[in-house]
């Protein structure tokens, strides 16, 4: 990061364009499609009604191939992957059905599914107009979006115009068959986060009914604001307009209401939205903002705090402040959030004013990455690239599991939840990709679009007010940050006190910036591998067989193959040799212990660089093979699908040695054996060999090992009871191994 951005980006220019695509396709088709979501721990799709209910969380699922509908179309267009984009559209048209007898959240369905369909439509039209692809397209996605919009309209049939929180996609809200329509309350954000999608739908289709309903809901919320404080509460009665919860903040329950007021002005050009936003914003900065904190207050007594903790959804607010043009408080709040992230690896779902965990969950929310992107966009401060690197690194280290990325059940313990929400793909990696990408990486100008709250792209051409603003509106525009920060050290001056406040007792040494950039690049490269291996023909598993004393071939570890290097299926003998740990363990640079690796099979840790790079480095050191061990603690071939290692997008013909992959549990068996016996010989092969053949040529085998069977009466004298494989126990006595599980089968 000490280098100019253009030079920094050139390090991974050929890879960064694929980053989003890697995650958009990762595991979904193999394990979840056409379910709404992927369950990354159990490697299957989440189908509502077949899995235990999670309460309101499941209201986002409507059996409409949710994750694919929300994420794939725009992402692949953003990456200029036009063929994949076209295939994604065809999948939606073929597999998505909206006439489902199911109750869904109006809010979630609007921002996720309707927004995804509209964003996909705008991308399809662009491609067709350019004559690149999609020449067959006749507004099919738009027609589907209108169908969905019509199915949501019954929810707005209230005296106030505020929508019911839920609607039955087939039956609406009236009648017993709907199983809904009895609710009386909704959150402010739920009613106030409709305008972008509904207005876009009206302007795309020419039918004003959708925009009219969204505007009516916003008008009612504006009228119900507390007139003295100009703040809104968190929950409102949809019939009477009475505030049910009168606490007010910028986080959960209100957040995207403020976001959509400002963005509605940006998208639609209606000054009324901006005027309302500015009134609210002045009150937020007067009562709620206590830099760097954002604390809820009571709408009737705004000087009285409503709680002493903050929720993670407020992490979007610095990005909104950037759009507003108020950069300094955006930097301050973002820095506080960054320090909390570094303290706990992720933003806890809620944390106290002294930055301790209040609610320990973290469902991989993207709001912090979103604000990081917008701050970098506004300031071009490479500090925010370092922040992005931290986000990437923590996702890789703590959330990655064999079939995707799992939500954190508890950030303190690192435990996972079998959950990967669609917003993780739709938002998180879109913003991270844009953070690191150069303008030349993008097939179109993102400045021509506004991001919805789920990062869907709606074109600014939808505006009906395109005239230039006069000078009196300057306060409504973003300032020139070069003039705002004439001294480059200025932002650092008010970041430093916040850093000290969050972490007084445990200062953390920072990695050199060049190293940080390299880590981010390598993570992206490995993610490309992780995804691309899913798209290629699946190879059968290979075997790592421990053949030296005292194992003699009885321990066989299931290994994943590589799509490059020596093909063990074409070798009758396989590759046998003693193992040694590479230094550095990641194998991402020239080995410092090359003299010990030469003629041996190198053990490597997964991560930090591409598999092909690891193979080249150990081959250069003279290794005859390599075994990559997963760094994701607890992963096992028992529960995870076969993992095969992909190349780096270039020719790998220069790699001639075999490279195999062991999950953490199996790799730990090998490492423990090496730790105990120092010299461990293994056979890398297509499948396990007969034990007699593996021990036939072991000249150093003690003579006692060549005689008779172990006297079972001596078993009680056995040393080194150890568990080397799930459910299998091995006792070693002298040089013999008794396989207890088979012996007593």
UniProtKB/TrEMBL annotation:
InterPro entries in alphabetical order: 6hp_glycosidase-like_sf, EDEM1/2/3, EDEM3_PA, Glyco_hydro_47, PA_dom_sf, PA_domain, Seven-hairpin_glycosidases
GO biological process, one term: endoplasmic reticulum mannose trimming
EC annotation from Swiss-Prot or TrEMBL: 3.2.1.-
Gene3D superfamilies assigned to the protein according to its UniProt record, in alphabetical order: 1.50.10.10, 3.50.30.30
UniProt entry tagged with the keyword Endoplasmic reticulum: yes
Gene Ontology molecular-function annotations: calcium ion binding; mannosyl-oligosaccharide 1,2-alpha-mannosidase activity
PA domain residues: 579-670
Statement: the UniProt record of this protein carries the keyword Phosphoprotein: no
Active-site residues from the entry: 108 (proton donor), 255, 349 (proton donor), 367
Cellular component annotations (GO), alphabetically ordered: endoplasmic reticulum quality control compartment; membrane
SUPFAM superfamilies: PA domain, Seven-hairpin glycosidases
Record field: transmembrane: 723-744
Keywords noted in UniProt: Calcium, Endoplasmic reticulum, Glycoprotein, Glycosidase, Hydrolase, Membrane, Metal-binding, Transmembrane, Transmembrane helix, Unfolded protein response
Record family assignment: Belongs to the glycosyl hydrolase 47 family.
Stated name of the protein: alpha-1,2-Mannosidase
Organism: Astyanax mexicanus
């Amino acid at each position: 990061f000490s280098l100019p951005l253009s030079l920094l980006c050139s390090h991974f220019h050929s890879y960064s364009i694929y980053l989003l695509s890697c995650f958009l396709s990762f595991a979904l088709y193999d394990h979840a499609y056409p379910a709404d979501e992927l369950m990354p721990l159990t490697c299957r799709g989440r189908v509502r009604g077949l899995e235990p209910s999670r309460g309101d969380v499941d209201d986002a699922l409507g059996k409409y191939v949710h994750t694919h509908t929300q994420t794939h179309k725009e992402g692949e267009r953003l990456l200029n992957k036009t063929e994949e984009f076209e295939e994604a559209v065809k999948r939606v048209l073929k597999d998505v059905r909206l006439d489902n007898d199911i109750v869904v959240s109006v809010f979630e369905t609007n921002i996720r599914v309707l927004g995804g369909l509209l964003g996909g439509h705008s991308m399809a039209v662009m491609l067709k107009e350019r004559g690149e692809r999609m020449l067959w397209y006749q507004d099919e996605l738009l027609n589907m979006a209108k169908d969905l919009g019509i199915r949501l309209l019954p929810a707005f049939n209230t005296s106030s115009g505020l929508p019911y929180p839920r609607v039955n996609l087939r039956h609406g809200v009236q009648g017993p068959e709907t199983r809904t329509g009895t609710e009386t309350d909704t959150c402010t954000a739920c009613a106030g986060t409709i305008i972008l999608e509904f207005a876009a739908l009206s302007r795309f289709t020419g039918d004003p009914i959708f925009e009219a309903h969204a505007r009516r809901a916003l008008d009612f919320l504006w009228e119900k604001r507390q007139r003295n404080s100009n703040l809104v509460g968190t929950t409102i009665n949809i019939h009477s307009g009475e505030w049910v919860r009168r606490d007010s903040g910028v986080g959960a329950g209100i957040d995207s209401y403020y976001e959509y007021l400002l963005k509605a002005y940006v998208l639609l050009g209606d000054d009324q939205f901006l005027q309302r936003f500015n009134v609210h914003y002045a009150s937020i900065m007067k009562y709620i903002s206590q830099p760097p904190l954002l604390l809820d207050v009571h709408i009737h007594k705004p000087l009285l705090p409503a709680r002493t903790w903050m929720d993670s959804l407020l992490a979007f607010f610095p990005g909104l402040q950037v759009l507003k043009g108020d950069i300094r408080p955006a930097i301050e709040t973002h820095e506080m959030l960054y320090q909390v992230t570094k303290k706990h690896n992720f933003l806890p779902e809620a944390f106290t004013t002294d930055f301790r965990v209040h609610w320990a969950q973290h469902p991989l929310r993207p709001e912090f990455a979103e604000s990081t992107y917008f701050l970098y966009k506004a300031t071009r401060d490479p500090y925010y690239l370092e922040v992005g690197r931290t986000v990437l690194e923590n996702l890789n280290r703590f959330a990655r599991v064999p079939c995707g990325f799992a939500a954190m059940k508890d950030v303190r313990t690192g435990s996972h939840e079998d959950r990967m929400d669609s917003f993780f793909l739709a938002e998180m990696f879109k913003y991270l990709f844009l953070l690191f990408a150069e303008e030349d990486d993008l097939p179109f100008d993102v400045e021509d679009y506004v991001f919805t709250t789920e990062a869907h792209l709606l074109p600014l051409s939808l505006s009906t007010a395109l005239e230039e603003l006069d000078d009196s509106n300057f306060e409504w525009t973003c300032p020139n940050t070069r003039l705002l920060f004439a001294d480059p050290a200025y932002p650092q001056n008010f970041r430093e006190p916040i850093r000290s406040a969050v972490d007084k007792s445990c200062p953390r040494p920072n990695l050199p910036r060049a190293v940080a950039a390299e880590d981010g690049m390598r993570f992206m490269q490995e993610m490309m591998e992780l995804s691309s291996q899913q798209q290629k023909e699946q190879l059968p598993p290979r075997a790592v067989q421990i053949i030296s004393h005292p194992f003699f071939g009885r321990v066989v570890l299931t290994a994943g193959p590589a799509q490059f290097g020596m093909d063990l299926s074409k070798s009758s003998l396989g590759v046998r040799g003693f193992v040694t740990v590479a230094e550095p363990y990641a194998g991402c640079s020239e080995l410092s212990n090359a003299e010990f690796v030469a003629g041996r099979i190198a053990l490597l840790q997964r991560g930090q660089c591409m598999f092909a790079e690891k193979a080249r480095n150990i081959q250069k050191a003279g290794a005859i093979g390599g075994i990559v061990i997963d760094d994701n603690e607890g992963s096992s071939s028992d529960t995870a699908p076969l993992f095969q290692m992909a190349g780096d997008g270039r020719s790998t013909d220069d790699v001639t040695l075999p490279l195999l992959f062991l999950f953490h549990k199996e790799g730990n068996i090998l490492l423990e054996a090496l730790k105990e016996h120092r010299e461990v010989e293994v056979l890398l092969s297509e499948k396990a060999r007969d034990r007699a053949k593996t021990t036939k040529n072991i000249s150093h085998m003690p003579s006692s090992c060549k005689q008779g069977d172990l006297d079972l009466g001596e078993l009680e004298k056995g040393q080194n009871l150890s568990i080397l494989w799930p459910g299998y126990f091995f006792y070693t006595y002298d040089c013999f191994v008794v396989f207890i599980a088979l012996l007593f089968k």
